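Run log // design_07
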């Protein structure tokens, strides 16, 4: 799960990022509204935690622009302004949920989980290919009806490949889905996780496209 965090308060942002990382989210943290706007245009996220009071561009304006582009990304807004007008404006602009500062990190995590469950149950039916079934709502994976245990990164890689099942995915695209910006990734990181997935799901499940990347193997479905 990849989350964009837009928060200009260094201490709070650092705390939220650390908390979300512990909960296995890949977090991109930006500190102003313009950066948030650009990041939302250039990247695919599973959710956004958006402070309303941001420098350079207000959070509400970022949210409105996102919705005007037809993007239904789940957005949880943070507001220091404990007035019902701010909450109403946020919800009217397309926010899915809100938290008023100060808040408990555990509550943020719980609300984000609930948000992702709701949107995934509604918008992401199970993905399947060659006898492998991935359920985004429960994060369960089965192969020919039997449960398969995957690490968070193996799951992220499989999820990416299944979501683009008819395309070849470059190593860079797959790395993007594995990591947030700024994290060191080894040059053979993707290969390592592909190797793990092949061991668990079958050698032919993921095909190497020489010089480009990977795609799911052909099946008779
Ligand atoms: Ca702020």
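design_07 sequence
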């Amino acid at each position: 799960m990849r989350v964009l965090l837009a928060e200009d308060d260094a201490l709070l942002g650092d705390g939220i990022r650390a908390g979300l990382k512990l909960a296995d989210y890949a977090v991109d943290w930006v500190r102003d509204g313009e950066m948030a706007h650009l990041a939302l245009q250039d990247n695919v996220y599973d959710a956004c935690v958006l402070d309303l009071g941001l420098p350079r561009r207000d959070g509400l304006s970022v949210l409105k622009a996102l919705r005007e582009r037809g993007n239904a990304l789940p957005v949880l807004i943070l507001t220091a302004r404990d007035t019902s007008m701010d909450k109403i404006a946020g919800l009217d602009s397309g926010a899915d949920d809100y938290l008023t500062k100060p808040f408990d990190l555990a509550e943020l995590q719980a609300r984000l989980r609930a948000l992702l469950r709701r949107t995934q149950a509604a918008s992401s039916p199970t993905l399947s290919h060659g006898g492998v079934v991935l359920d985004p709502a429960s994060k369960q994976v089965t192969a020919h009806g039997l449960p398969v245990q995957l690490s968070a990164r193996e799951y992220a890689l499989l999820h990416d490949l299944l979501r683009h099942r008819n395309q070849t995915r470059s190593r860079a695209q797959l790395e993007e889905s594995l990591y947030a910006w700024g994290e060191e990734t080894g040059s053979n990181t993707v290969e390592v996780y592909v190797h793990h997935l092949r061991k668990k799901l079958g050698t032919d499940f993921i095909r190497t496209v020489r010089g480009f990347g990977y795609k799911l193997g052909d099946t008779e479905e």
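The two ends are 28 Å apart (CA to CA).
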